Amino acid sequence: MQHRQPAQQGAHCVIGRGAVLGKNVTLGHHCVIEDGTVLGDDVFVDSNTIVRGGVTLGAGSQVGANCILGEYPVDFYRDHARHDHPLVIGAHALLRSGTILYGGSTIGQGFQTGHNVTIREKTTIGDHVSVGTLSDIQGNCRIGNYVRLHSNVHIGQLSRVDDFVWIFPYVVLTNDPTPPSGNFAGVHVHSFAILATGALVMPGLEIGQDALVAAGAIVTKPVPAYAVVVGNPGRVSSDVRRIKNKFTGEPVYPWRHHFTTYMPWSDSDFTTWYNALDLPQKRHYGLEQIEPE
Hints:
By secondary structure, this protein is mainly beta. The protein is built from 3 helices and 34 strands. Strand 33 and strand 34 form a beta hairpin. It is globular, with a radius of gyration of 21 Å.
């Protein structure tokens, strides 16, 4: 990849001399591409978007209007000096309008955002993750692969969300046991868990593998694997494996055996996909020790 002029460029763009642009890069109007930026081949950046120095954007990515990639963390506003906070975004990202991604994070391939998403610094995100409109991921978070966050989700600092987790609208993961304080304790959501609409999880708690937190539940205690938690305060009401489809009578959970859309086993089924993985791949997904079902 070498420095070149965009294949298409709107009016009044500013491109730093030290920016590196791949083949077939397209810029809308009033884009700012600073020195130290790397845009891969076939990248599209819509109007009024700023890509700050230190950002690497993978090939085939698309960025909507009015986005900021590599937003300054707070240290810039203390002294207005440029600090080294690289932001790496993998190939084939789709960042919708108004997305703001701070510098200092690493994001895998196939990443998608809705509109007006904010992701703060020191966040690590895996592959094929989507974050819905108006969601907010605070700094120092770790998000796994194939995680689905719907709209208006808040993920507090120090949260950890493992692979294949579903978080539905208006869920909040808190992190301050005695607010206001600086003694944060993040929530840990294990693989395949589901947090339904409006659930609230108190600081430092673990949500076990394949657990289901019902809509509106307020979780005040650790949730075991496969547990269904309901109410305020949340209580374990049953095991997800007992839930049946009301039309067919078949088990609904674990959901991975019935849902394939956007998942890496979409061409077959979970068991076939899982059995084909070698041990390093299972460890990559955190699946080397799936509990018996």
